[in-house]
Amino acid sequence: MRSFKQLFRITTLTFAAASALMVTTAAQASNKYYEVTVTNITQGVVFTPIMVASHKHGVKLFELGGSASNGLEHIAESGNTVPLSDELIATGKTLDIATADGVLFPGDSLTLTVKTDKRHSHVSVASMLVPTNDAFFAVNGLHGPRGKRSKTVYSPAYDAGTENNDELCANIPGPPFACTGEGYNSEGGEGFVHIHPGIHGNGDLSEDSYDWRNPVAKITIRRIKD
Prior knowledge:
single chain, alpha+beta, Immunoglobulin-like, 8-stranded antiparallel β-sheet, 4 helices, globular
């Protein structure tokens, strides 16, 4: 019998192809970095390729109670980080963006590194939770640590409010042993970003296998020099 990780690797390349991105928008080089380590602390949920960005104060991925942007909707419904990365670059306030090459399994950690400087001292992180309709975790414009210090935060699961939580595999992308349905679509959901209610076993998903209790992700940010 194949393991959880072996089965999910079937879709790892699909997510990576849609999301793999590393871009620097700084006009001048920086030798200071944020090292961002994410740990999946759920029992059965997988994180799609994680996006990390460094940017100026005031940049936000979302506001609780507000509508999700198109870029956030793409991440929350399909794991595709490219549209949100494009939105961040378009602000003119983003220094660096890095995206993981693959998914993150329960209990595992990965580290991504982005450039930082005095003006771009804030960090945002985002990734979809699968299998869900439109759940994601995020760090939303957090001021990074100073000096050699580190900063650790925990993220709950958020609901983008862009797709109804019907828990039907026809509306949920991978992993293949759970669902192989569609990802992004323009259909509406609740209409605003809020804390996700979890998996209730109302459709094709097992509550015992995929439900969680917040938080779902541990994020540690460390400032380093080259």
